[in-house]
Amino acid sequence: MDAALGRALSPPFDPYASSLRYRIASHVIPYIGLAGYVGANPNLQAKTSKRLVAGLSAVEGGQDAVIRALLFEHAMNKSDLYGMTVAEFTSRI
Predict the structure, then answer these.
(1) Residue ranges per domain, the chain?
(2) Which superkingdom does the taxonomy of this entry point to (predicted)?
(3) 89 Cβ contact partners less than 8 Å away, ≥ 6 residues apart
(4) Cα(4)–Cα(84) distance, rounded to whole angstroms?
(5) What is the pLDDT of residues 33-80, one digit of tens each?
(6) Residue among 27, 4, 31 nearest 15 (CA)
(7) How far apart are the first and last CA of the chain?
(8) Which residues, 6+ apart, have CB-to-CB distance to 14 below 8 Å?
């Protein structure tokens, strides 16, 4: 989270401190997966591998959509997110 926000967070980001923080941390996982699949796909030779990556991308996209929907419910909530709203915090990720 420090890298995403461009500064060391104080106190450090704890994804287990609240359910909202856990959802924010969970948002990172599908995003990284999708970026990796998109980057790898052009380098794959076998059609089977390309189909597998396309299927995994669809699953990751679905997971990301669900997490984003859950976060959207709290978009304007500042909660304990270092003075930022959930929308601001997640857009920096």
Answers:
(1) 2-92
(2) Eukaryota
(3) 5, 24, 81, 82
(4) 13
(5) 777 777 777 777 888 877 887 787 788 888 888 988 999 999 998 877
(6) 27
(7) 7
(8) 21
Kindly compute the dihedral angle of the four CA atoms of residues 65, 61, 80, 88, in this order, to the nearest 10 degrees: -90
Distance CA 5, CA 90 (A): 10
pTM here is: 0.74
3-state secondary structure of 48: helix
Q: Up-side HSE of residue 51: CA atoms within 13 Å toward CB? A: 3
**Closest alpha carbon to 87 in 17, 14, 18, 20:** 20
